[in-house]
Design a protein that fits this description.
The chain is about 80% helix and about 0% strand. The two termini are about 25 Å apart. By secondary structure, it is mainly alpha-helical. The protein is built from 21 helices and no strands. It has a domain of about 180 residues.
């Protein structure tokens, strides 16, 4: 049996690995994003986001929560593993067949160009290849060895972004994404099976399947709500607002959510299996939740606010980036919604780890229904601003999520957030003042960033006695 210290060590190693992967991907993605948003048009980005959402919809039906069931269980056997793999492959093949069969409808409905059709087919193929990685990934997640999953993701992202960048420079346009998608999928399958070997077996044990579905179906139902709330809505916006406006929305949302993608995605990957391991130890869970809030707030709050403060300068500074200026109002709203929603994520993971998937599902139902009611109404009145306004309204419900979760695990929220919020507001003042200095765009941007970082760290040190160097040493120990 593993002791708590071993699990904690692997958790910290996994978290650091995920942070490294997120940081690496963010830097690589930033470089790719610069190249692509300079070379490609907002319309091409709109087509890419639309087709990606179509595949995400198909992806939902490929699992029915079975993978999550294996991760949540304390012990698993060979029958459970082979049953999950077999059922998933049957579903995936049926979905891929369906995806190819509705090709003509998709083309007519969205008026996709030939390159859009090729991208759609490429994503269907990559969807099948990605499904083969599920079982090796589950083994690593159960052991909380995310550093090995990270290695695969680093390889995949490197192949994808480099392929897309080189292809775009060669003038391939939308085909750049097609080439990147296919190569990433092929390389990813070989990499995961090399790192986490597993011999594929086909078998269905129906009694085992029934047990797994008791957790899997409610869990997947929440995923379905997220699908309807996010990806189906993207398809709706693409049809109502057009690809160019959807390109602006996609650009703004991608940039605004980059801090929480780097921080919260990494944390979330670890939290679900970790909370599942300690589901019977409420005192330990309380300490874990407070640490998550503390470290999350220390980075996400200043990073999101800082990004909002400097984005206009970045758009002015980067060559050929002025075409994204119309997306700035959307970006600011997405920043606010991203900050709010980041405080729902860990608590939804906590509820799932405790086996309270029905509670998570009820939240997802509320968010989904409210999104589909508010977005069309607000889009009618405010155009492209309607969707981000909706997200700001709904993301503020994180307060309700926290209140309900506290009934099970009595953690403290405000004391782990306040100091970082106040320090970030002081940082905001410093950035605004330095941005008014009579300097050209480049030096002004650099000085503003440095002033913001220094002011934030000084405010924490002088007002709240928080020393980031000592915090890092403590966390490492």
């Amino acid at each position: 049996m593993e002791n708590n210290q071993q699990i904690k060590r692997r958790t910290i190693l996994s978290a650091f690995s995920l942070f490294f992967q997120s940081g690496y991907s963010a830097i690589l993605g930033f470089a790719a994003n610069l190249v692509l948003t300079i070379l490609l048009t907002p319309q091409i980005f709109g087509i890419y986001f639309t087709v990606l959402s179509l595949i995400a919809i198909l992806n939902y039906f490929s699992d029915i929560g079975l993978a999550a069931s294996l991760i949540q269980k304390k012990e698993i056997d060979d029958d459970e593993v082979t049953t999950v793999f077999t059922v998933q492959q049957i579903l995936v093949l049926l979905i891929v067949f369906l995806g190819f069969s509705v090709t003509s409808f998709i083309i007519k409905f969205y008026k996709l160009p030939p390159e859009g059709l090729t991208l759609y087919w490429a994503l269907l193929i990559s969807f099948f290849l990605s499904s083969l990685k599920t079982i090796p990934s589950i083994f690593l997640e159960r052991k909380i060895q995310f550093q090995k999953i990270v290695l695969v993701q680093i390889i995949e992202n490197t192949v994808f972004y480099l392929t897309v960048i080189v292809s775009a420079i060669m003038g391939m346009g939308l085909k750049s994404f097609t080439a990147g998608v296919i190569l990433r999928a092929i390389v990813g399958v070989f990499a995961i099976y090399y790192i986490s070997p597993w011999k594929m077996k086909l078998k269905i044990d129906f009694s085992t399947l029934k047990r797994l579905l008791s957790f899997g179906i409610p869990f997947q139902a929440s995923s379905f709500m997220a699908l309807v709330k996010d990806d189906l809505l993207t398809l709706y916006l693409g049809k109502v607002l057009g690809f160019q406006t959807l390109g602006y929305i996609g650009w703004a949302k991608k940039w605004a959510e980059s801090p929480i993608r780097i921080i919260m995605d990494s944390i979330s990957r670890v939290l679900f299996p970790l909370f599942s391991r300690f589901q019977n130890n409420l005192d330990q869970l309380k300490k874990m939740v407070e640490k998550v809030i503390y470290y999350q707030s220390s980075i996400v709050i200043p990073a999101t606010i800082g990004l909002a403060l400097i984005m206009e300068k970045m758009v002015d500074l980067i060559p050929k980036y002025s075409k994204w200026t119309p997306a700035l109002p959307l970006f600011y709203l997405f920043c606010l919604s991203a900050l709010f929603s980041s405080y729902s994520t860990p608590f939804i993971n906590l509820l799932n780890g405790l086996g309270k998937v029905k509670t998570s599902f009820y939240f997802m139902v509320f968010w989904t229904v409210a999104t589909w009611i508010l977005t069309p109404i607000l889009t009618h009145f405010f155009g492209s601003l309607g969707f981000p306004i909706t997200l700001v309204i709904l993301s503020s419900s994180f307060i309700i999520v926290i209140a309900i979760t506290k009934k099970t695990v009595n953690f403290s929220f405000l004391k782990n957030v306040t100091q970082f919020l106040i320090s970030s507001l002081i940082m905001t003042t410093a950035v605004i003042l330095t941005s008014r200095l009579p300097l050209s765009s480049g030096p002004s941007l650099i000085i503003s960033i440095l002033a913001g970082i220094i002011t934030y760290l000084l405010a924490l040190k002088l007002l709240f006695r928080v020393n980031f160097i000592q915090e890092a040493r403590f966390f490492t120990k």
